[in-house]
Task: inverse folding
């Protein structure tokens, strides 16, 4: 029986596990390792940070949903991978594998900018459940004594969407509370222009977002690198200083330490179009853990986002490729990167579709509408249902 080990229990790891089980049944022994014992629907973390969701609304315990499908779950952190000996190393054991799937997501590199981040710095982050919970407490305190707000993405960021969502949601909340006039708002980003998103823009995203920010009276600073954050100021490399009372900044990402040695200089795993490691035939990787080269060099470094939509497609491709070697089912079509994203904007939301992900493109759609907000709310419920019932084959 083939032994398959999966690292990570989120969009990538869970989808791969369910798909492998569906294809292979008893032909494989599948073990999923995660340092977190729950699945978190990360796209709802901005909502949680504003008190619109509670943790129990957007999380699922991993053990029961995996064991129901006869997939073993180990609540352990992988400390390393010995790729030559085909073993995963944890504090408690060594786990041999015939196939390994790396779906460990990012290491959030707060250490790259002094003063950045909720642990050793002065800014909030909404990228993990723990951080979003802390951001919610800071937001509640901020409402008692408001002041300037700075939101954005530092140099090297690849995941730009959440900062856009957060700035529009905060703007809406403040207007609802009749407080917006007490709060100067700044949006600071490493993108060369607003709406670049790390993918060279999407249709008329630049012109459209310039108007949105102007109408909402949010000051824009693009093409910026941050020198440091102090408790009161964002200090930019060009000498500009922006005061803030509440700061939320996205960090750059790297591969997690346990697998970084298998990756490029930032620890991201190089894979082919079936998500197979370029040097190790029995290692696959999906989601944020993989390496994607940026479409263009930007004056301030930026990276390419790897969304949940893309991650699910990568996981389905990897699972089918592994199953095809073990049981002879047809190989999957090569994964062609495209993206569909629903960006929350407070009262409304934007539908974004890019095919392929990077320009030049065959198709790009950008549409702001109320129905997109409803679609986003429904998608959260749908995705949690799908993960709870092990339906990894669904989009
Ligand atoms: C705030 C926010 C909002 C977003 N909104 C959207 C959206 O609206 N639409 C969209 O398509 N995408 C969105 N994304 C992107 C989406 O969340 C990611 O693409 C997706 O989470 C990637 O899944 P993953 O499995 O690759 O990694 P992750 O979700 O990061 O999961 C990695 C998992 O691996 C575990 N892990 C890490 N290291 C180890 C280790 N050493 N041993 C064991 N386990 C380990 C972690 O605990 C984690 O559970 C958003 C991202 C953020 C941060």
Result:
């Amino acid at each position: 029986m083939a032994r398959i080990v999966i690292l990570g229990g989120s969009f990538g790891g869970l989808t791969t596990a369910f798909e492998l089980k569906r294809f292979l049944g008893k032909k494989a022994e599948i073990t999923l390792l995660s340092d977190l014992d729950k699945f978190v629907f990360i796209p709802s973390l901005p909502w949680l940070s504003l008190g619109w969701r509670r943790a129990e609304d957007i999380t699922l315990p991993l053990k029961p949903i995996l064991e129901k499908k006869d997939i073993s779950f180990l609540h352990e952190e992988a400390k390393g991978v010995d790729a030559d000996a085909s073993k995963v190393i944890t504090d408690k054991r060594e786990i041999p594998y015939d196939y390994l799937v790396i779906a460990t997501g990012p290491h959030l590199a707060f250490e790259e900018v002094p003063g950045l981040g909720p642990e050793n710095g002065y800014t909030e982050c909404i990228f993990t459940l723990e951080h979003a919970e802390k951001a919610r407490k800071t937001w509640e305190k901020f409402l008692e004594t408001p002041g300037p707000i700075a939101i954005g993405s530092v140099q090297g960021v690849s995941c730009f969407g959440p900062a856009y969502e957060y700035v529009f949601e905060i703007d809406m909340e403040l207007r609802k509370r009749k407080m917006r006039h007490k709060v100067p708002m700044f949006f600071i980003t490493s993108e060369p222009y607003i709406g670049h998103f790390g993918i060279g823009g999407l249709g008329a995203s630049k012109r459209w977002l310039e108007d949105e920010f102007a109408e909402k009276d949010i000051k824009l600073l693009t093409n910026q690198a941050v020198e440091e954050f102090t408790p009161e100021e964002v200090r930019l490399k060009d000498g500009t200083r922006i005061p803030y009372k509440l700061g939320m900044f996205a960090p750059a990402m790297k591969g997690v330490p346990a697998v970084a040695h298998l990756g490029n200089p930032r620890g991201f795993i190089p894979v082919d179009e079936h998500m197979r490691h370029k040097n190790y035939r029995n290692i696959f990787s999906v989601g944020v853990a993989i390496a994607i080269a940026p479409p263009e060099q930007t004056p301030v470094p930026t990276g390419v986002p790897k969304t949940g939509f893309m991650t699910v497609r990568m996981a389905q491709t990897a699972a089918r490729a592994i199953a095809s070697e073990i049981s002879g089912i047809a190989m999957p079509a090569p994964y062609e990167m495209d993206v569909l994203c629903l960006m929350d904007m407070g009262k409304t939301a934007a539908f974004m579709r890019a095919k392929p992900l990077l320009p030049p493109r065959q198709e790009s759609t950008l549409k702001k509408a109320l129905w997109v907000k409803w679609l986003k709310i429904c998608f959260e419920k749908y995705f949690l249902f799908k993960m709870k019932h092990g339906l990894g084959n669904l989009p």
